[in-house]
Hints:
The structure is a single chain. The chain has one domain. It is globular and about 55 Å long. The chain is mainly alpha-helical.
Amino acid sequence: MQMLNRYFAPFALLLILSAIYFSEPDPRDYKLSLGILAASILVNWALTKYAYRWFQWVQYMKALQVWANFIWSIPLFWLLQPYWAPMWLLFALAPATAALNTSRVHAFLCAAASAGTMLAIYHQRGVFDGGIGPAGGMAFVHAGFIIVLTMFVHALAQAALRLRDPQLS
């Protein structure tokens, strides 16, 4: 959970605030985005603060944090993607966090859900109207990157565990 708050949360904050500042979205969209961002920061902070007070619930709280971050990504992507193309990177953060804290299968399912949701939103926005085309091709590359990054981070995390504790091999 600390890895999420140390690396991914600041990146998400940078991504969202950059989208709002540099692209000047509709005032309604950026106000909603700031509200979602504030709620996500509060929830992530609370989950991290209280996770180890109830040690028996840590695994559930980590999973909750991963899926909550996936859920936050959906409206943020919907609201800001038309103004700021790099918003797709939000969908890589929850699966990468899952890769650090969960099994390979769970990490893959989270990555597939993120990639699929992103593609569904692109489809809803008309990216695939008239065939795949260059924009559709980029969307599929983004989806593939989310899955590959997740599996790579999971493999790195498992390698680090094996180095720390050789009996896990």
